[in-house]
Amino acid sequence: MILLTDDGTPLNAKLELHELGITFQSRSGTDRNRDYRVALELLLSRLDTGKIAYEIYLDSRPVQGVELAKRRLSFNRQAPISVRFDELVRAMNTGSHSHGAWRKLLIATPGTSPAALLSAIGAAKSIRKFVRLPARELRKVTEFHIDNAVRRLLAGGEAPNFAPSRDYDALTDDGIPLAPKKIFGLALEEALGIEVYPAHFSAGWGEICFELLENAGLWIVPKSGAAARPRPHPSQIQQELNGFTPTDEERSWIEGNPKIVTHLKRERQPGLSKQKLSEFIAEHGRIFCEECRLDPVERYGAEAGAACIEVHHHRTHIAKMQPGHKSKTSDLKCLCANCHRVLHRKLALGLSPFL
Description:
six-stranded antiparallel sheet; three-stranded antiparallel sheet
């Protein structure tokens, strides 16, 4: 097996499944496993991202008869990946005349199934030549395909050709983070009837993958260090504003993320807020903020207190909201004005909208 980079490029570094995990072949000569360092660092990074516990053992032929515990290599698991690599090289060459040989390793992953391991590290069985699919093919993915992919992943299904996401999460309507490329890859397989790999499409701001995922109601949020949502073009903002008149405060949110317009429109459905508040009081006997638990009547009195609570649309899955869809009160949450505005500000910043 070989490792593929995030864009689907195959690395010259050979892996093999082992009963304890995987073996990572040594580098030698002028062409054998020449991407050893890049591949091992990528492998360690993906194991970290997948939260897979592992131990690393020297597995060169001269030591294969030695007890496994005596072959374990020590390194600082909290150190940056590049530092870990250097520590492993020093450890694997301890006691030898060489100080820079890159040797065969056994990476044991106790408790992790082979399928889960292969999915986490993004390994492929053979080198294939991939070309980017044209936009017309990518746009054959519909909200139906994306919804099916989300359901499959939430049910424990795998996307074996795709590694865990390192830069972005796609949040479901319940705030569950999934890897954007896994979702889109599975959706694309269903739409086109082919086996899909990372090199078939790009993921990121401005790419069709993110566009269609967000159109299907998923919120794309960057992890630490990833690029934030780019500021939208004024024409995009104006297009979203057609038929909608925002307040000054709402306009500032929309200028950061025009997708908020759809969210705000749902919150303004006539009569729905009043119905939600009535049902909430009937169920709980009082009104309060579901986030900070503020009881406005207790603090401000019965006449003025109720004005502090607003209704927020916390269900955002557009795939479930075809034309003519009417939101249900179960799609709504009661929030105080402060919590509601903080949440909308998060949406504008491209952060998780879930409190």
